[in-house]
Structure formats: C-alpha cells, structure tokens
Amino acid sequence: MKILVATEKPFAAVAVDGIRQVIEEAGYELELLEKYTDRKELLDAVATADGLIVRSDKVDAEVIA
Description:
By secondary structure, the protein is an alpha/beta fold. The protein has helices at 13-25, 39-46, 61-64, and strands at 2-7, 29-34, 51-54.
C-alpha cells in the first residue's frame, strides 16, 4: 500500500522522517508531494495512493474519489 503525504507547504524534515518511519514500519510505502502548485499534480499523485496525509491543504470530493 502507498501512503501519499501531500502538502503545498513542506513539513519539517524531522516530521517527514517520523511519518516515513511509522509508515514503513507498518509495511507501507511513502510518497511525498511537496510544494505542488498545480491541482493536477495532486490529482495525479493521489490516483495511485491508498491513503492520504495532508497538512492544511484543501481536500474535496474530487481528490477523495
């Protein structure tokens, strides 16, 4: 399973490291999408993800679908 961390404003490196550790210990793969500027980037990345972690980005029905 792949978990996507998507955020326009990057998390601190130590936070990403902690998230990565938890996800990988659970047997999942982490994909990181930071500083994206185009909604299509988010939609493309989430299309192949099994889970999603966001910071303060807006997630609507289209992203969830």
